[in-house]
């Protein structure tokens, strides 16, 4: 009788162990799927942020060059090239945009903080001249 009871208990233990292992594997697959989605969103956000930065830089250069042209400098060729780049970056930005607004705010703020720290450390007397706008 004891032997029969012991085998019954061992059988239940084996079934419980198999069910636990299946549940653990299933949960691991679900976590992997969630992590893959988050990783994909972060990659898209990274691309979107990079394109947005390039677009802002090109627009700032266009504005500065427009001011220089109005001041008598002959930079129409450069301005036209930058306008073409703006259109190209604008298209890239549209393709790289992420629909999750929480990712946009947090990563852009992080970028602004790190960018301002780098800029503050590197500002010098040449940073405000024409060369800085034309030499890139």
From TrEMBL:
Name this polypeptide is given: RAB6-interacting golgin
């Amino acid at each position: 009788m004891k032997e029969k009871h012991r085998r019954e208990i061992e059988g239940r233990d084996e079934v419980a162990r198999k069910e636990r292992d299946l549940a653990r594997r299933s949960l691991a697959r679900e976590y992997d799927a969630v992590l893959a989605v988050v990783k994909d969103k972060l990659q898209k956000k990274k691309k979107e942020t990079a394109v947005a930065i390039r677009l802002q830089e090109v627009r700032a250069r266009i504005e500065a060059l427009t001011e220089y042209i109005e001041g008598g400098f002959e930079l129409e060729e450069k301005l036209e090239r930058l306008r073409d780049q703006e259109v190209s970056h604008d298209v890239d930005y549209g393709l790289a945009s992420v629909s999750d607004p929480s990712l946009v705010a947090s990563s852009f703020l992080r970028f602004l903080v790190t960018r301002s720290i780098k800029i503050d450390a590197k500002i010098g007397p040449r940073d405000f001249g024409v060369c800085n706008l034309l030499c890139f």
